[in-house]
């Protein structure tokens, strides 16, 4: 009798162990299956009939929609709406970003960054500053001519300036640094840096506005001129060389 009871207890223990293993296997299987289903199922999209921005004084709604790559009537997932809010915050142009979304609308509440720096271009001589600013505004809807000391926008401007230089046939790097001024507002200064041990080199013709005027026979002559692939005279401690006119001296 005792022997039969002992065998029954061992059978019960064995069955309980197998049941635990089976339960663990089934739990893992259903967890994996539900995860795979969630990844395969497309995220729900919401049609935003109206997307509005409140509190932004530097931008219109159309400018912000363009900067975010969004439009009224567009279809977006919850993650895409969240990413757009993150982009506004990371730009540095806003001190605070909050939002609320409904099934058919999105609303962003913004507080402008009060500590913006005036942009200054140190030695960008390949086009007028007005033209450079216009080109940056066309490429970057967030760019207004003022930049935050922190955030992604200042670095984005640096990259776009390098792209503009490349289009002009110039191989160079651009550096940006905030500069504190005692006599005027703080600035974000952009400087074209030397590349590979030499100053920015050109592979395109020198703009007409950069060429030195041709002197008359009665005036002092200036040399050297600026030519293709020469060092930029504007970036070096360039000194003119005076040479007397042979006809004027009679020698």
What does the model show?
There is one protein chain. Helix content is 36%, strand content 22%. β4 and β5 form a beta hairpin. The longest helix has 39 residues. It is elongated.
Offer a quick outline of the entry.
The chain has 251 residues and is of the alpha+beta class. 36% of the residues lie in helices and 22% in strands. Strand 9 (173-179) and strand 10 form a beta hairpin.
Task: Calculate Rg over CA atoms.
Answer: 33 Å
Question: The biggest beta sheet, please?
Answer: 4 strands, mixed
Helix- and strand-based class? Answer: alpha+beta
Helix content: 25-40%
Average residue-wise pLDDT = 74
Number-wise, the strands total 11
Strand content: 15-25%
Distance between the termini: 140 Å
In DSSP terms (H or I, runs of 4 or more residues), the helix count works out at 6
Strands of the widest sheet, in order across it, are 7-6-10-9
* Principal-axes shape call: elongated
């Amino acid at each position: 009798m005792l022997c039969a009871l002992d065998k029954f207890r061992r059978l019960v223990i064995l069955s309980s162990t197998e049941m635990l293993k089976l339960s663990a296997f089934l739990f893992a299987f259903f967890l994996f299956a539900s995860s795979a289903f969630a990844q395969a199922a497309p995220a729900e999209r919401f049609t935003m009939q109206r997307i509005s921005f409140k509190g932004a004084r530097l931008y219109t709604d159309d400018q912000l929609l363009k900067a975010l790559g969004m439009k009224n009537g567009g279809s977006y997932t919850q993650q895409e709406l969240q990413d757009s809010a993150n982009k506004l915050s990371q730009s540095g142009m806003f001190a605070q970003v909050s939002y609320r979304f409904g099934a058919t609308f999105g609303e962003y509440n913004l507080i402008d960054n009060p500590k913006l720096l005036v942009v200054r271009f140190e030695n960008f001589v390949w086009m007028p500053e007005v033209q450079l600013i216009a080109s940056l505004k066309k490429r970057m809807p967030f760019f207004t001519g003022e930049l935050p000391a922190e955030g992604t926008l200042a670095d984005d401007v640096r990259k776009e300036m390098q792209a503009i230089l490349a289009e002009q046939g110039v191989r160079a790097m651009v550096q940006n640094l905030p500069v504190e001024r005692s006599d005027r507002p703080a600035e974000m200064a952009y400087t074209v840096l030397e590349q590979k041990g030499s100053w920015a080199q050109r592979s395109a013709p020198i703009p007409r506005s950069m060429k030195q005027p041709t002197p008359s026979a009665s005036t002092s002559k200036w040399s050297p001129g600026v030519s293709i692939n020469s060092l930029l005279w504007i970036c070096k401690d360039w000194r003119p060389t005076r040479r007397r006119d042979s006809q004027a001296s009679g020698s």
